[in-house]
Design a protein that fits this description.
7 helices, mainly alpha, 209 residues
């Protein structure tokens, strides 16, 4: 989905590091079942986003992953309602649910059902050896225009996750200064990396980069 090679490897690096962090957390840490599910779903998401950034990901099926991450988002919201006792915890789980839904959105637009199609231009219609200047063709509309709703979703995702990345980075710095436990600091850093990666993905859908 990301064509720019530099951005592609930045995103792969962000999500790969996050996948390692959450994978280690699932295997080594003893936590309540809600935290285990939380870390496992984030691990799957990070791996999925690494794959999505690769050029050959466009050839992979997308319906199954999109449905999976919709269900993951619903699971986070359900845990926020029935299994998380604190208000801050519930807000955090709702945020995780939104991130899962954003991942589902990315898979949904990969299959072309929601991604606005590019209309043909005069250049695309030209045949070898044909002089298009001699033909009186009507002007073609802009081929890369996207529907308003698609652009709105893209900007909301890009700005929202960019702000989330700033928030988690700030929280990571504050926790380090307060000498909080390394586990919590790494968790904040992982969230910052995931949010930054999602912001880049949303920008890529807007500018086709």
């Amino acid at each position: 989905m990301i064509h720019d090679i530099v951005l592609r490897w930045v995103v792969i690096g962000l999500f790969a590091l996050t996948a390692v962090e959450y994978g280690v957390a699932v295997v080594t840490r003893r936590r309540p079942w809600t935290s285990v599910v939380n870390h496992a779903l984030h691990f799957v998401m990070a791996v999925a986003m690494v794959v999505m950034a690769l050029p050959w990901s466009a050839q992979l099926p997308t319906t199954g992953p999109a449905v999976f991450f919709v269900l993951a988002g619903v699971a986070f919201v359900a845990m926020a309602v029935v299994a998380v006792p604190t208000t801050a915890g519930r807000e955090l789980y709702v945020y995780h649910g939104v991130m899962m839904l954003a991942t589902a959105w990315m898979f949904a637009i990969m299959n072309g059902h929601l991604m606005p199609a590019r209309s043909s231009t005069q250049h695309d219609m030209a045949m070898p050896g044909m002089d298009m200047s001699a033909m009186n063709l009507p002007a073609s509309p802009a081929s890369n225009e996207s529907p308003v709703w698609f652009t709105v979703v893209g900007w909301v995702g890009a700005v929202g996750f960019a702000l989330a990345a700033v928030f988690w980075t700030y929280r990571y710095i504050v926790d380090r200064r307060r000498q909080m436990t390394p586990r919590r600091s790494l968790g904040d850093l992982g969230q910052a990396m995931m949010a930054a990666g999602m912001a880049i993905f949303f920008l890529a859908t807007l500018f086709r980069i």
